[in-house]
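Exercise: predict the fold of this chain.
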Amino acid sequence: MKKISLTGAILIGTLAYAIPALAATSASFTPQTIQVSAGQQVNVAVTVDPQGTSNYAEKIEVDFPADLLSVTNFTQGNSWMPLTQTGYDITDNTQGILVKTAGYAGGITSVTPFGTITFTAKKSGTGTVSFGADSQAFLKTGKISITGAAASVTIGPTVVVPAKAALTSSHNQSPTPQATPDMSPVTTQNGVVITPTPSPVIGSQVAAVGAATSTGGGSMTLWIIVAILVVAVVIYMIMRMGRKKTM
């Protein structure tokens, strides 16, 4: 039987130590690019990936910019059993730290949703949301660190919601004036309205007065026309009376 050299033993030991390390648990944020306006809320999902190694519990530490974001809620994923002991359940909006720990009956070996963080954007700016150094996965025989890529945060100015649209043009239009009904008294005979027939001379003179008025003549011209009209009516009445006497 060949003896194993010291160098070979060291190499085998190194490989044995490195193999478990390759099966590290990772975590991720969704979305990876967070874009929101100041004053709005955004949900960020946290997912863990044991990469084939049985994980029975996870401790997730999330570091976020406290001047830009605050945690308003955390919803644990299905089938997880939260641990609320001191040091394992922290929400610190002053320091910008969130710690959530939960166990999973029977363990997980594949990608599993861990929970959802609800952030409220406080003001405009940019930053990152990352997994803290205290993030850990608990195995049957110990624990290992959890690593994952950070998510970028961009917060824009407050979105101004436009006011209600103005009233439609039909509402803004002035109402159509209604014609005023003629309330002048009328003469009826046996229920039939009798329309008076104006004298030809008087009618023509009235028309002349209307025409003169519409042309915009001065007040002196109007009075002259009225005087002529009166004289014409008097002459007409005298002539009519003279005819009746001759008859």
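Check your answer against the key: The radius of gyration is 50 Å.
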